[in-house]
Amino acid sequence: MFKLLFKFIKWTVLVLLILGTIAWFYPEKFLTVDTGSVSADVLIVLGGSGSSHDRALRAAQLYAQRAAPRIIITGAGDDQINRHILLEQGVPDRVIEIEGKSTTTHENAEFTGRLLRAERVRTAILVTSWYHARRAEKTFAHCVPGVNFFSRPSYYGFARADWVKAGINKRMRLEFLKLPGYCLRYGINPF
Predict the structure, then answer these.
(1) Bridge partner residues of 42 (DSSP)
(2) Is the dihedral of CA 120, 36, 83, 132 positive or negative?
(3) CATH: 3.40.50.720, 3.40.50.620, 1.10.10.10, 3.10.180.10. Which one for 32-186?
(4) Spatial separation of the C-alpha atoms in residues 100 and 76, rounded to whole Å
């Protein structure tokens, strides 16, 4: 009995090590979730992209492509900057709504979820950075059941050569700590 249990644990650890190694060396393959061209009731722009504000630019691009008729900006701190960028890119003020109290991805989902339920939204496109897409999509799906979430991330700094120069290397690597952290703290399955 103990031999069988030991063998199971040994193989499980080996598989996890192999998967972890692959994810570490090819994080763009593991962290990026992009559902492709879709349309939805609303675009949700998550805060926290740093000084690049690539998420707001991506949301403006998706809005121009008619991916959704409305935009919700979520996240304290850069919510007004993102709103300004959207307006500069030609998004009308009347289609922008702000949730400006959240400070984490979990709070983004929790607080924005209240708005989505109140407005009876059924589909939403999450707009975040490529390295944040997996955790964002899984967190929103976990916190806001009944809404179908799609992911259309920004690819700013996606090229491996840009990771250090754009300051993405550290943020991207932190996702490997945050994914299991969200699993342990909130019960959010990263797969």
Answers:
(1) 124
(2) positive
(3) 3.40.50.620
(4) 4
Contact assessment for residue 48 and residue 78, using Cβ atoms and an 8 Å cutoff: yes
Q: Phi/psi at 79 (nearest 5 deg)?
A: -65, -40
CA distance linking residue 43 with residue 48, whole number of Å: 16
10-68 pLDDT tens trace = 888 888 788 778 777 888 888 999 999 999 999 999 988 766 789 999 999 999 999 99
Q: Which residues contact 140 (CB under 8 A, 6 or more apart)?
A: 44, 108, 109, 112, 113, 124, 126, 147, 149
| Residue in 75, 82, 54, 49 with CA at minimum distance from that of residue 171 | 49
Distance of CA 182 to the CA centre of its chain: 13
Rg for the chain, CA atoms, rounded: 18
Taking the whole predicted model, whether its pTM rises above 0.85 is answered as yes
Contacts of 117 by beta carbon, 8 Å cutoff, 6+ apart = 144, 146
